[in-house]
User: Fold these one by one.
Assistant:
Number 1:
Amino acid sequence: MDPKLENLKYDSNGLIPAIIQDHATGQVLMFAFMNKVAVEKTVETGKTHFYSRSRGKQWLKGESSGHVQHVKSINTDCDKDVLLVRVEQVGAACHDGYYSCFYRQFSKDEPDWKIEGVKVFDPEKVYKK
Amino acid sequence: MDPKLENLKYDSNGLIPAIIQDHATGQVLMFAFMNKVAVEKTVETGKTHFYSRSRGKQWLKGESSGHVQHVKSINTDCDKDVLLVRVEQVGAACHDGYYSCFYRQFSKDEPDWKIEGVKVFDPEKVYKK
């Protein structure tokens, strides 16, 4: 493994937070955790991989939906304990069918979170629930 | 407290990750954790507040440097367990003097992380070390 990636600061569970951003528009698409293997696979394959705490294993983003993310650049922060990955998103990032997972916006005057953005796909069809 | 903020999913330590983004350019500036009080203060004052795990208390971003962040919008993700806060940044976000904390970029061909971006201020002068 590239020593620059070895020297990132992983937390006590061996994880590092990763912010995924659309490389062309700057839109923040999703947030998830990677472990060392996921970071290594992301660099090697050029497609984002993450670590699922609930399933206890690495996963390729898009493995079910086909909505993979092609990596354009990887940055880290001043403390080297967070990653910012700029990607080209195939399809949409959110399993709810929105391009970005951050489709809910706070407004003091509304009773619930306001939906910002439109559905790109129908999750029931893509995931064959 | 607004029930929409109460219903966010805080982790076992009572924290929620917050991604801070420049509202005008889309540049991701920093990443930190908030607790319920920090979320409430951020909404009430219109300036970002975070929770410091090392110091065990809330803090106002910019309380030492004057580099506060004026909140333009607050979004949450599909799972309601991450926040995306768009801000107008005064000065610079990073205590190292860069506008964004994510100033280090990975390159396979370089021996170390490559610096992306320029220093906006001299940390030694701003923080009077």
Number 2:
Amino acid sequence: MSTHETRHEVGLKKLSEFTDTNSAQSTHDKISESLKDIAPAVGEWITDFAYGEVYSRTGLGNRDRALVTISTLVTQGTEPQLALHINTGLTAGLSGNEIVEAIMHLVPYTGFPRVLNALEVAKTVFAERGITVETE
Amino acid sequence: MSTHETRHEVGLKKLSEFTDTNSAQSTHDKISESLKDIAPAVGEWITDFAYGEVYSRTGLGNRDRALVTISTLVTQGTEPQLALHINTGLTAGLSGNEIVEAIMHLVPYTGFPRVLNALEVAKTVFAERGITVETE
Amino acid sequence: MSTHETRHEVGLKKLSEFTDTNSAQSTHDKISESLKDIAPAVGEWITDFAYGEVYSRTGLGNRDRALVTISTLVTQGTEPQLALHINTGLTAGLSGNEIVEAIMHLVPYTGFPRVLNALEVAKTVFAERGITVETE
Amino acid sequence: MSTHETRHEVGLKKLSEFTDTNSAQSTHDKISESLKDIAPAVGEWITDFAYGEVYSRTGLGNRDRALVTISTLVTQGTEPQLALHINTGLTAGLSGNEIVEAIMHLVPYTGFPRVLNALEVAKTVFAERGITVETE
Amino acid sequence: MSTHETRHEVGLKKLSEFTDTNSAQSTHDKISESLKDIAPAVGEWITDFAYGEVYSRTGLGNRDRALVTISTLVTQGTEPQLALHINTGLTAGLSGNEIVEAIMHLVPYTGFPRVLNALEVAKTVFAERGITVETE
Amino acid sequence: MSTHETRHEVGLKKLSEFTDTNSAQSTHDKISESLKDIAPAVGEWITDFAYGEVYSRTGLGNRDRALVTISTLVTQGTEPQLALHINTGLTAGLSGNEIVEAIMHLVPYTGFPRVLNALEVAKTVFAERGITVETE
């Protein structure tokens, strides 16, 4: 971490690399907005700790971090967050096709139910962003 | 899938790309061996379905598939399989450092306990393969 | 597996044993339809691998497989799939009463929350199929 | 357990300590009502076993039991039951602030997704009961 | 429940139907013994509530209840209890082959890792009871 | 957070409130020591983020935070961390009896398996610290 930046600034900058599109940005903004009335510190932890400290480490690139994030969220079945991170994953360099392949790859590890539910979430996000995937 | 190969042959070939080292191979062999007396069909499903159909799709490379696999196994906390797939991940092109970073990246999504247990597993596999990671 | 049938044909036939009613069929069709635009291979895996290879094994009957399937889905809390498989379970020979008893049996193993949510799903499916259960 | 009371009576009395407000009562009543047509015994188990035997033990007070209950439900991600038990927790002596702090405390153990979804549930319950939390 | 029996007596009788062999009995006894020093009420709840109220309901037979129990424990990955209930399942009328088939049936729903770990547990229990399974 | 302390210092101080006994301290030290060779930043996140930011918030006391922590770990089934936090819970003001009651309270929410495994862990920790619990 540069000595001239606080981790909050580092976090905001890193976050913008994942949300620099209308769709990802607006999804993330809705989360922060909703936290304001009940637990604003959680919003700060997301920026300062998750993006400022974890995501900002140099040993793995943004695209790979998005792949790891999508994989854990499919496995947990936490769909609102999966929608957000399919969005941030597209912004961070994953193609729609790669995201679909990653979800499909999880069938032998999580079984079909989690995968089917995740593909539904992906369809909705892709429709919002006007993304079509090639199917084979 | 080539028309000249059955999915079993495709699966064996794909599997070898992930297990072409003494350590990964011997870990995988132990699983197949153990299945023989009780449920040999499960061993065939792993080769024919998991490796022959899922892993063999072209839309995502071996290294990325290893990253997705490690992420789901850390999240599930299934440690024997995590040990195997840290092994196959190393063979498929992930560095020890990238594996550690991927596990660390999961802290904001799974919390510390799963991550701490996964890092213990990684340490054991790295020691067996004589891999050292740079820490920062 | 008969040498005169491919596993796809075996899968379709087995699948029809579980979906041979308007309600189960239409639920299953909706899943396949939805997969077509995004991941048609997953639909094929369900027919060819899940029904053609796993469900088609002879060591356990359709009714018992439905019981196992409902039990894992209640435990995972994946409700859209639970609705489908309460439907296929009814078609495969489980009575509404047996399904309710199986869900209730899970209280000591999963706790009340998963069971309460599963009973809500069962109520909806039973209402759609015009099934009433005797309560004691 | 007093020799003059059955565990059903003990359970009803203990339950009333957690649901003695319009909001908690009506949420609990909806569950019992819904169980009547499909599995009334589960409703009796909740009163007689959960409240009559488990909750009625003397080694831990009502407020602490509510804290334990909320923590497991956030971890499991079972949102309908979390809504009920944020309600019963408020009735049993937890403040809105303490509930928010308990949910926030889970970030290092469950990660952010479960916590964000739980805070949404808390917001809805607090709004229904006219509770405001101080944020810092 | 007969009016001449308490639920404790009903529970003990039902429990004996599942543990009436040296191996299942001794596994269950070890659990009760271990609970005595720390939480004897939990041992009573298992007999009185789990066996006396849940298992004793008439709508589903012992063998089917064992199938449901094994399915949830494979899904949860709680291996000490899985070992116990593979044991009780054998006593309650499931064959070794049926247990293996039920575990294998879970591959499309839980993925391979949980299934592989459960098959290891089954192997150990079968060896202790001198059971061999036919593999195909 | 006092302006005269960094969050690392705040974290160390807070951590010491939970580990100020030989047993809890040595368990925590083993974790930090083990992380040094593979992922020292995770050890820093535990001190700086988990203890320095989350645990240090004023809205919930140390004892209550220990109760929440134990509840989530029983639910997740992550036993090495459960052993640590039964230890820190004892140091933070929970009695052995309260810890046992909290674990028992989870039966209606997680089912018996997680609870039985957690009680085994508690027995081991209590034996190490020479703690006896009154059973009723």
